[in-house]
Amino acid sequence: MSSSTPRSAADTRPGATTDPSTDHEVLAVVLQVTDAALHVLLWQHDRGPADRSWALPGGPLMSDETLGQSVARQLAQKVDVRHLAHLEQLETRSDLDRDPRGRLLATAYLGLVPADQRSILPADTRWHQVEALPDMAFDHASITSSGVRRLRAKLSYTNLGFALAPAVFTASELQAVYQAALGHEVSATNLKRILVRREQIAATGARTSPGRSGGRPAAEYRFRTRHIEVTDQFAVLRPPEPPRTLSE
Amino acid sequence: MSSSTPRSAADTRPGATTDPSTDHEVLAVVLQVTDAALHVLLWQHDRGPADRSWALPGGPLMSDETLGQSVARQLAQKVDVRHLAHLEQLETRSDLDRDPRGRLLATAYLGLVPADQRSILPADTRWHQVEALPDMAFDHASITSSGVRRLRAKLSYTNLGFALAPAVFTASELQAVYQAALGHEVSATNLKRILVRREQIAATGARTSPGRSGGRPAAEYRFRTRHIEVTDQFAVLRPPEPPRTLSE
DNA sequence: AAGGTTATTGACTGCTAGTCCATAACCCCG
DNA sequence: CGGGGTTATGGACTAGCAGTCAATAACCTT
Predict the structure, then answer these.
(1) Torsion of Cα atoms, B143 then B146 then B147 then B152, to 10°
(2) How far apart are CA A174 and CA B57, in angstroms?
């Protein structure tokens, strides 16, 4: 830059302070399907400008940790982090007035907990249905919406369902998880066929014990991998197929 | 947890400083198709630990601006920002050693410039082919890859092509832009049919003046909107169609 | 054994998008 | 002015994905 574009940006904005340091916090949108509905983990402020409102778990970024380490550390105060099947960065908010106490950047993460995990929560912490959020602090409601939107989008073109479903499950159980997460009806027949064809899930060979409820025992499935992978079939305008090799 | 694993964060990490302030910079991955190839805007460091290497445009975040304002301000030093047809946040990097001078967070943005815009660049600034990147500073090569990956993904399931294409264009011109951006062959016939069906582009009615090169004049198209929209058809497991209304 | 309940499978359909080829509309040249 | 070259356009054909529905299977209880 240097010569032609001097980087003392402040020159162009005389009124601005040049102090580039800001406070930075980390927030987490942790989602789980329970009781046929998608829930987000919130805790209740007990003082401060957003008194009695609910907030996303999080806290200040320390100077010797990465954002990912920070969110994992802070989440450990609220849930058993071993239950987190997936954690990814969502976005960074920087509105000047997002926190009335002053300038505060926030980097949000999306975390997912399988439906069969039950954490023991601290007294101030609860799961809330995302379709019926309480009054929330600052921009936390908006950040929660971003997280839910991200989850719903990725459920269609990735194998992210692994992070919401139990380790093994029947087609019906999977249908219930997807239906709650997506927020609309889902056909179990179609869902199972799609995920099998995409090679996201595979039958374990076992069936549910013909015990309880009457009805035919169901086949059990599991996700083939438990890390995120993109369904390449959703790349429209995909590269031309290489000519089929002779090895086959 | 919580009660079982009390954790006033600092307690568990005695060596850590609790100072939550960090330096923060903004970087931009600005992409444009020219000469049948996808290019990224870079400028050349002339001193410092990454001497002679190329860097993404950017600079420190000021305390009275949002991240979006900051990236727009800093980009103005490199290109005519009126040429930017799209700008979105990409990700925030926080590795402790990403800059050898010390802890420095970086929030990266993705910017797109239509293929027909020609900016006058400062002397230290140049467009580089993304398929042949020079030595780059710090983690800037990795951030560039993230930007290119994001662009390629969104070209398939959004109308983001509007930000790379000229205001009006023929099917061949659009094909050239997509092919360069995606990095693989694209069929003009198929591309045009897909984008028309998705209602992303529409014929203007005009045709190219039958002037220069011989050959039939081509129909001209334009994108119907110049802000990003998601192709809902890529929501697999989409909600059931409401029964057709009588109004039709 | 009959009837209720849940699961699984296959048939059928519509739509998307990939490929290929015939035809259209221009140019230049002889 | 007509033939041949060049680029553009549109139609035909195909394969595969996903949505729906109904028939069948495998359990239960009475």
Answers:
(1) 160
(2) 46
Residue A61, Cβ density class (10 Å: 0-12 exposed, 13-18 middle, ≥19 buried): buried
Chain D: nucleotides under 7 Å from a protein CB?
4-11, 17-22, 25-29
Q: Please, which positions of strand C sit below 7 A from a protein CB? A: 3-10, 16-21, 24-28
Name every chain B residue with its beta carbon within 8 A of the beta carbon of A16: 62-65
- Subunit contact A190:B237, Cβ cutoff 8 A: yes
Using the Cβ of B212 and the Cβ atoms of chain A, whether some distance falls under 8 Å is answered with: no
What mean pLDDT comes out for the span B90-95?
Answer: 98
Which of A3, A13, A22 to mutate to test binding with chain B, by most B CBs within 10 Å of its CB? A22
**Domains: count for chain A:** 2
Q: How far apart are CA B102 and CA B76, in angstroms?
A: 27
Q: Which residues of B134-150 are buried (b: 16+ CB within 10 A; e: fewer)?
A: eebbbbbbebbebbbeb
Strand D and B197 CB separated by under 7 Å = no
The owner of tokens 């926030």 is A106
Which tokens sit at A57? 């778990």
Are residue B69 and residue B146 in the same domain, yes or no?
yes
Q: Over the stretch A57-68, which tens digit does the pLDDT of each residue have?
A: 999 999 999 999
- Sheet containing strand B219-223, edge to edge, reads B169-170, B219-223, B201-207
For residue A36, give both structure tokens.
């046929």
pLDDT tens-digit map of B177-221: 999 999 999 999 999 999 999 999 999 988 887 666 678 999 999
Give the range of the structural domain holding residue B125, as residue numbers without chain letter.
Answer: 23-150
Give me the B residues in range 200-229 that sit within 7 A (CB) of strand D.
Answer: 207, 213-219
Q: Is B138 contained in some domain?
A: yes
Q: Last residue of some domain: B150, B179, B210?
A: B150
A-chain residues near B185 (CB < 8 A): 239-240
pTM of the model: 0.89
Same domain? B142 vs B163: no
Is residue B239 assigned to a domain?
A: no
Digit-by-digit pLDDT tens for chain A (248 residues) are 333 333 433 334 444 455 555 699 999 999 999 999 999 999 997 766 557 899 999 999 999 999 999 999 999 999 998 999 999 999 999 999 999 989 999 999 999 999 999 989 999 999 999 999 999 999 999 999 999 999 999 999 999 999 999 999 999 999 999 999 999 999 999 999 999 999 999 999 888 876 766 789 999 999 999 999 998 877 777 766 554 444 33
pLDDT of residue B241: 58
Residue A104 has a CB neighbour count (10 Å cut-off) of: 20
